[in-house]
Structures are given as C-alpha cells and as structure tokens.
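Ticket #4471: structure output looks truncated?

Reporter: J.K.
Steps to reproduce: submitted the chain below (215 residues) through the standard prediction queue, then opened the result file.
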Amino acid sequence: MAIERERKLALAPSQHDDVTRFFDERTGAGKPIGLANVYFDTADCALAKAKSALRLRRTPQEWLQTYKTLGKSIAGLSNRHEWELPVAGEALEIDALLAVCDDAAAREALERAAPDLIALFKTDVRRIVWNIEREGSQIEVALDLGEITAEVDSETRRSEISELELELKSGEESALSMLAAELRGAFPELVPEDLSKAQRGYLLRERPDGKNRDA
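Returned output as attached by the reporter:
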C-alpha cells in the first residue's frame, strides 16, 4: 500500500502556456503524455459509498489498474491510500488487487462490488510532467488539460479538466505547501481544488454541470 500525498490547484486553460514556461525555465522541458482512464463502480455506486475509487488507465507504455480510498482533501491537499498494479490489457484484474489491498474495509468493499462492476465515466487528459526538488523533497508536477465524460440516459455529459497536481514522491509534506505558495505568488488565479477526478465524475453523473452544490 502506498499513501498518495498531493496538492491540487485549478487553473484556467488559458494559463497553461504560462505555467509550462514557468517550469520549463526552471527545470527543463516537461514530458508530455496522454492518459485515458475509465472509472468503474456498481450501478448503485457501492465503491463511492465506501469512499473508494477504481480506475483503469492507459499510458503510452502500459495499462494500470488503481484502487484508492478517497481520503480527505483540505485546501487542495489530499492524503489517500492507493494500490496500483500493471495489467495485461484493457481489462481489470480484480483478484490481483484484492491480493495486495491491505486495508480490510477497502478490500471488503472491492470484493463485494467486484461481480457487478461497470464502467461509469471516463477521463482523457493531456499531461505535462516535471520532476523537481524542494528542500530535499522530490515532487512530481503534472499539468492536466482534458475532460470527463459520462453517458447518462443516452446523454453524453462533459466537464472540463484543467488543473495542476503536485505529488510528493519523497520527503516532507511541507514541501508541497511551499511549492503551492510559490505558484500562487506567480499565478494568483490558481485556486485549491478539493475534488478528485473520480469525485467530479460521480458529480457529473448526478448533475449535467458536474458542480458540487455544497462547495
């Protein structure tokens, strides 16, 4: 089990070129990649009710399946348990995930949901990645632009993705806050994003605009 620690910031698509230059000038050119993701749950969203999310991802190199607890996100800073494994192709391998999931509640939720899993929504993202160091800590910076799509009653619903993810790979969590503060100083329009892509996908299925009324 890994614990994913990241800070997420929302930004306007018009800011992507400026943010790209900001990091390119400091760390060298970022690595562009395309990511296609399908999120799975039961028809009555049993995994979401158990505060978990299940994703199948296609990267340029391989297919990955990822199972996460939704955890908590405060001012854009989130901490989540995560289990990720490569798979042979475009299909989940649930038994392999169950074998490595060492959280009893999360494992039970996945095992109960497994027979009834269906694809609920998708995300397609163009990502640029930089690996940087702050105060001895290693941080992966990912600039994402894309969309979430969900098919609901023969209607295709869409929601834009435009965000910056700062994920701590090693070191102190305070490094994320320092980098986020630096970025917000350079780009005051950046705002913390507390909803994961999975949470936004569920909201899109509930409401055509995909917005959280409680935000």
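Triage note (M.O.): checked the attachment and the full token line is present. Strands lie at 2-10, 31-41, 52-58, 63-69, 72-74, 77-87, 118-134, 137-152, 155-170, 191-192.
Status: closed, working as intended.
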